[in-house]
Structure formats: structure tokens, C-alpha cells
């Protein structure tokens, strides 16, 4: 037996020690596209032991050279973009054009991590006596344990590899086993560019076992996770028990505030594109639409018409604008949220049903007259589902917008400068987009407030989560 997607340990692709494997499915067809090897406890331990050696080798590579290697890896990702984008679409479902964008974004992050490696420096603090000084030295924090999800599997992994490798850390990554191929392609580009074989490991398999084993491993100095709030809390608790720092990039349920002064048709056009990108499976995606009552009818009409006209299909077909949901769990979760809203009196303005029986297709859906008790207003839909909520009282609307535990992203549409400032100041969210969509670019830090996360990724501080300092007192 040979799995198509194998573990990567010490630079060697191999099966798990017990030869366990799981099927990987194309979400557009349901067909099995290959098996993914599953790691055992021994495999995890071996990966960590080798990564500890990899850390010693990689941290000794001068940051300037690390920067060159990461820059080269970014070029290799761009060189292989067609192949990697196809893999991404096959295993995750997104339209090929979106997959290409994701490869480009992953390359940007890797390149940016390398550029920031070249800027690593310490500082000198004057002492209390003329001959005294304190030197503050940055050091790589250790082996990084990274857990990455299936929705934007390449770019979200690239953020973590960029920061960890730029800082001089080794990294052991457990990607979602539903989308294994693109993270293996990322690792391949990094190894081909010159990252030492032992500095990178990729493990698939039982998420609970692998995460606990990695968190408890002595050589592991940092835990970084992107995924749901529920799993983030479990991992943060386990990391706390082992006294290890975490970076958490968790879920969102973004409010969108469309004020009466904007062109409702233009706002609807921008927001339909943002809402249904990756079939709504993006943590920053707009998901609760508060629209000022005087333009709500025009906004809704345009939004519904546009959503209903989206061409849904296999991401490999050139005409496709929205692909399938990435897995059957999402299909069921979205259907449940729609059924719950409907049973409480909401109207389905378009969609509200599964499309066909082959693959995980769900129609772009718009809900109106949604009662406050509907679960979709509290639970992240993480799917192609848009509740539209007309408002006339700004203070009441803001209290609904801020009411939930999520604090990742929010959207404001108005040209009134004072109102923009007032709304942005009031929103308890880590990222706010004004009059447009939100994409996380490598050069800017982004992270969630409240339960949506701990820490940021990207920006000039991209290496910081993966560094620790040494205070050197010199007399
Ligand atoms: P889930 O909560 O089971 O898993 C979320 C992610 O965590 C997956 O990638 C999974 O592989 C991983 N995971 C699960 N248990 C783990 C463990 N013990 N250790 C390490 N990793 C573990 O849910 P799901 O059905 O895969 O995803 C649905 C929810 O996840 C969505 O509602 C959304 O809120 C959230 N999500 C968020 C993001 C994001 O970008 N922030 C990405 C993917 C999923």
C-alpha cells in the first residue's frame, strides 16, 4: 500500500508506523482522490526529536541567509502555482482562480517572513553605571507546533511557516487531513529552497492525540492554531497546563453595517463577492448584514438577485463562481442553521437548499425577517448564508453587532466621515473594513479580539510570536 499523501519526517515522505490511512475526498464529486497517511505516537515523537536537531541547524543559519532561502521558496511556489492551485481546488473545492490567489498570498507570506528575518536585531539598554549595559537578544522560541485548517489550507499554513522559519524555529505542522496536498507542496518548496530537512515535519492523523503529544513535548516551545473557538480553547488550556505560549486565530461572525447614505446597489455588489468567496468559509467573511432601513429594500433586492445568479459548480470548471462546501459537516451545519431560522419565521429570499446529491453543493442563500432568536445570529455560519437585518436605531444595532463572543472582523459602509469614526470606534473587532472587502495581506498584522483569538499574524511583527528574548546584563 502506498498513500498519495504521506507524512514528512526528517525530510522523508513515509507512511505512518501502523500503516493507517484515511481517504481524502474531492468535495465537488465525493470521489476519493487518494489516501492520507496517519501518524502514530511514535511518529509524532520521532518528528519532534528530529525537529529539535533541525532547530539547532536552522537557528545557526544567519538570518540574512534564512531570508534568501525563504525568498527562493516563495519563487518556487509561484513557479508551481498551476499545479498547487489545482491540488487546492481538488481537495478543498474553491474555484481555480481563488486557488491561484491563495498560492500567491502564501508566497507573499513566505517572502515577507524572509524579509523580516533580515531585520532581526536586538537592542542595548544603558546601565545604571557608566560601564554597565543590558543587551536584549532575540532568540527562536523552540520547535513550533502548528495546527492549520481546511478552509484556506495553504495561505493559513504559510503565515505560520513564514513567522516560525523566519525567526529561526523548526516547525512541526498538523494540517487538516482533509486538505493534505497543498501543505505538503508548501513544505516541498521550502525544502527545495534550502530549509534543512529536519527543520520541517508534516503530520496527519488523530488531531487530539497529535496535538496533546506535541504540546507536552519538551522541545516544543510554541503552539499556534487556526480553527474554531471550541478547539482553540482546548489547545490553549493544554498549552497553559504545559506553560507554553499560544497564538490563536479563531472564528468570526462579522457584522456589516450599511448606512443609508451609500449606493445600495454598489454596496450589495461588493458584499456579494465578499460573502460567497470560498463559499463563505473564511473567518473574516461578512456574515450579519445590518442595513439602514431606508435603503434595505434596494440593497436586499440587488443582493438577492446577484446571489441567485452566481454560477455554482466544480471549482475546476472555468465558469464556476462558487464551489462546493469543503466537507459534509459544513453542508449539514448550514442546512441546520437555515432550517432553524425558517422554523422561527425567517424568510428564505433565495437558496436555502442543497444543490444535487453529488458533492457538497449548497445554494447561495439570503435570509430576511430573521428573528433575534435564530441560531444564525449567534453561530458562525461558515458557509454561503447571509441574514439581512434592517435597522433604524444605530445604538440598538451596535449593541447587537457587539453582543456575541466573536471579535474578528467587521465592515462599515458609509461616506459620512464622522459616522465612520463613530462606528469604527464602537466596534469591538480586531479588523474593520470601510467601504470595501477585507483581505489579510502579509505586510499588516491581523488578529481577533475577545474569543476570536490571541495575538496577531503578519506585519513587521510576524516573527515576534516565534521569538523569546534573553536579557544579558554586562558589567
Ligand atoms: P472543528 O472544530 O472540529 O475543527 C476546526 C479545526 O481544528 C479543523 O481544522 C480541525 O482539523 C482542527 N482540530 C480539531 N480538533 C483538533 C485538536 N484536538 N487539535 C488540533 N486541531 C484540531 O470543526 P470543523 O468542522 O473542522 O470546522 C468548523 C468550524 O471551525 C467552523 O464553524 C469555523 O468556526 C471553524 N474554522 C475556523 C477557521 C478559521 O480560519 N479561523 C478555519 C476552519 C474552521
Short description:
Keywords: Oxidoreductase. This protein is α/β, with parallel strands linked by helices and 475 residues long.
The number of domains is 2
Radius of gyration: 23 Å
Ligands present = nicotinamide-adenine-dinucleotide
- What class would the helix/strand composition place it in? alpha/beta
GO molecular function: oxidoreductase activity, acting on the aldehyde or oxo group of donors, NAD or NADP as acceptor
Protein name: NAD-dependent succinate-semialdehyde dehydrogenase
Family: Belongs to the aldehyde dehydrogenase family.
Pfam families: Aldedh
Secondary-structure map:
Elements: E1 7-9, E2 12-14, E3 21-25, E4 32-37, H1 41-59, H2 63-79, H3 81-92, H4 96-117, E5 123-126, E6 133-140, E7 143-148, H5 153-167, E8 170-175, H6 180-193, E9 200-202, H7 207-216, E10 220-226, H8 229-241, E11 246-249, E12 254-258, H9 264-276, E13 286-292, H10 293-309, H11 328-343, E14 347-350, E15 365-368, E16 385-391, H12 394-402, E17 409-413, H13 417-426, E18 431-434, E19 453-454, E20 467-474
Parallel strand pairs: 7-8, 7-10, 8-9, 10-11, 12-13, 12-17, 13-16, 15-16, 17-18
Antiparallel strand pairs: 1-2, 3-4, 5-6, 6-20, 11-19, 14-15
Bound molecules: nicotinamide-adenine-dinucleotide.
Report on this model:
The chain is of the alpha/beta class and 475 residues long. The protein folds into two domains: 3-250 and 450-474, 3-Layer(aba) Sandwich (Aldehyde Dehydrogenase, Chain A, domain 1), CATH 3.40.605; 254-434, Aldehyde Dehydrogenase, Chain A, domain 2 (3-Layer(aba) Sandwich). Helix content is 39%, strand content 21%. The protein contains 13 helices and 20 strands. It has helices at 41-59, 63-79, 81-92, 96-117, 153-167, 180-193, 207-216, 229-241, 264-276, 293-309, 328-343, 394-402, 417-426; strands spanning 7-9, 12-14, 21-25, 32-37, 123-126, 133-140, 143-148, 170-175, 200-202, 220-226, 246-249, 254-258, 286-292, 347-350, 365-368, 385-391, 409-413, 431-434, 453-454, 467-474. The strands form five sheets. Strands 14-15-16-13-12-17-18 form a seven-stranded mixed sheet, with helices on both faces. It has a six-stranded mixed sheet with strand order 9-8-7-10-11-19, sandwiched between helices. Strands 5-6-20 form a three-stranded antiparallel sheet, with no helix packed on it. Helix 6 links the parallel strand 8 and strand 9 (200-202). The protein is globular and about 70 Å long. The N and C termini lie far apart (63 Å). It binds nicotinamide-adenine-dinucleotide. Residues 147, 149-151, 176, 207-208, 211, 226-228, 230-231, 234-235, 249-251, 283, 329, 380, 382 line the site of nicotinamide-adenine-dinucleotide (NAD). The site of nicotinamide-adenine-dinucleotide has 22 residues, from helix 7 and helix 8.
